[in-house]
Amino acid sequence: MGLLRLAVLGPPEVLHNGSRLTFALRKAQALLLYLAVEGGMHPRSKLATLLWPDSEPPDARKTLRNAITLLRSQLTDASPAPHSHLLAEQELLGLDPHAPLELDLDVVQLAWKQAQGLSAVPSEEQRASLVAKSQHALALVRGPFLDGFWLREETGFDEWVQQQQQWQVRLHLLFERLSSFQENGGELEQARVTLTRWLALYPLSEEAYRRLMRVDLVLGDASAALQVYASCRARLAEELRVKLSAETVALAEHVRATAAARRGTSPARPATATAGSQPPSELVAPLIGRAAAFSRLVGGFQQARQGQPQAVLVVGEAGIGKTRLATEFIAWVKAQGAEVLSGHAFEMGGRLPYQPLVESLRPRLEEENAPEDLLDDLWLAELSRLLPELRVRYPDLPAPTEDELTAKVRLFEAVARLLDTLSQRAPLVLLLDDLHWVDGTSLDLLRYLGHYWIRHGSRVLLLGTVRSEGLEPKSQLSAQLLDLGRDLPITQVTLQTLSQAETIRLIQAIAGQRKHGNLDAARPSRAVPGVSPAPAPAPAPEQETPLAALGDFLFAQTRGQPWYLLETLKLLRDRQWLVPQLAADGVFRLEPTMEMAAAFAQGRSWRALLPPSVRTMILARLAKLSQPARQVVMASAVLGTQASAKLLWQVAELGVQAGVEALEEAVKSGVLREEQAGAGCPGSYGFAHELIREVVYTELGAARRQVLHERALARLSGAGARASELAHHARASGKTLEAYRYSVQAGEEAVAVFAVEDAIGRYEQARALLQEHQPLQTMLSAAEVEHLYVSLGWTYAFQNAWQQAQDAYKELLASARQKPLPTLVSMTLNRLAVLAVQQSKDKLQMRALLEEARQRAEASQDQRVLAETEWNLAQITATFWEDPTSAFPHGQQALSLARGIQDKELEARSLALLG
To answer: Do 198 and 163 reside in the same domain of the chain?
Structure first.
């Protein structure tokens, strides 16, 4: 039975087995649509009355039978056992519930039920599921229910169509929930697409207009927000004579004020180029991969707005994007009408008391026309301790209290009263950036404020950004925040590095290569009155671009660290590897050049692409460490992998106590990171980011690197380390002989686990050492050299790399002849002959190789090599040349020699061949 697909949200469409159906009888189509939407079984009399109310019952029943016959003919499979989707049971008619049917309403119903039953603060999994299902459901919507479909007469069917208003209500809910989750998750471009589509389908939704205005404002496009307002006013106030709500008018005034304050183009969105314009001088990274974090900030704000003060800490390593997230969030809360005060703590000797709070309060009071409306003179006088300019503005202020016991409390009370008064006017967000550098007195004040806000139900959200290392359990900040948390609920939002997919999306967005959707396809202000907008196009599948390849490369190097990524892209642009090009739509996009492609193809070292700004930042972090901690960090850079604490301080040559303290310091600083092992097993330590290791290793200098590698080799060689690791340290410390032997051993370890390609790489390392260091050849025995080349030839042959195998044997042959080593010459000639057999090469070449091998074995009187050569001659002559008669003497000779030297294995092979 074929698949029946019905789309009723918009002009009706019916597809059967992938083919669109047309209906000669319009009421036959109406019957099918009714049965599909209503489901279940229906009396024929009811259906006849529904569609033919003016006909006599017998005539209506007869016409119904004709419609049913028509539907059966169109819905029946052309198969040996035809089946129809229609199901008739005596006087009842419906669609077979077991037949394959897809109805767009079912998808909408499922998404609506999930949205309706979702909690106010869903988990990330619930949110992602709802977003995906809602996007899928709304993509099916092409217009109102059965748009444009009626029977042109007074029928119960047309009345039934008019009664399906619940679908419009459900679609409004889906649009509202989807845009809310996108907006609250910081996915503003996606929210913009959803909202423009909402208004394209339902241009009378004032809530959708307001949401789109807020999103445009946050995106830095105040002019677009004002266009949306103009469309809203034209549709509602002018066309329908509906008065706009006070909330919409207030939002428009806020947009106008913001536009006047900005006086320029925001970097949040790329500006359209005009004739003679220049490409943007700065690269701006959109907020990608931070939806869950943004949503948690929004959740904290929503609680604070309801009179439940909150504190949220955005935590992460330097450059992870804490300030970037906070900035986007602040733009969002401003669009919600919130008041924002922001201050920034700085790293400096003798940290300034209350500095970030002074920075946040000063501009707010300067812009206030009458600060005395905010605070009484008594409290303004106390506040003048922090803001002495208040006394210039109000010379008659009373003197602040001189009682040392109460002065601090009075000052704290003044600040608390000021913030509480501001929060009564509008929800207040207090942003303190780089809170890890804040002074102790400011932390005391924050503790007082938290207690005051809780007691008074102040609508305040305290938002702080903190580096991960600043929240160590024993730090002053941790202790103070623990005290603050006893009064004020604190939420910690930890930012992680971007995933590979997010890294690629970020790079494509920065370069302007990826759009987030058809942003202008359904702008309300540009819609033509009376014309239904075209449905939004389905999203195109992701296409591979040169920037995607760049994204893969940069993710491998930066591990998704946003600031490192942005700085590297700036470096590539400065080097003209990424060049701005003006596209047809008037937007500049970064295009990769041939030089960049060539650099990647040549395997250019990543160190050459390390931006100076990143190196400088890393070196500044390292400079803060004590000398023992730097020694541990240098030891970790040389070891290159996760290492135990004991190994680190041994390589650093520190005692146990000094080593433990140095390691703790390095971990607290965020340079090293501890990886926990299983229960009862000690953890291991490595760099928090590979770029830090690169910088540390480069800055060591050649002499220090060699010494540390030598120490690492000494410690690891007695600890059962892998041969490949030992070979690396031996090479770096200049111990060529050890490096050679460990490389060969590493190749054997790889072969043992069938990692043949890795084995070839290890053997080739040993071969390169042998060729580059002439003294090494006198230090190795002939057996060691032979073992290397035989192993290398075998692994190449195993990979069917015949030419490389032959080159290895020929190199061994040349060395054996030069020594001279006749036995090795004979054995190598045998190997070349066997290799020729494997390649099915010329018979004369094989015979020549074996004959020369036999002659040299006879000359050297090496019975074992001679026996092996005779056996090879017999084997090849009998099997490859198919000449058993000529092979027999060689086999007899091989058997005789094998018995003479008592080689049981060769004797058995010879007997099997002769047998």
So the answer is: no
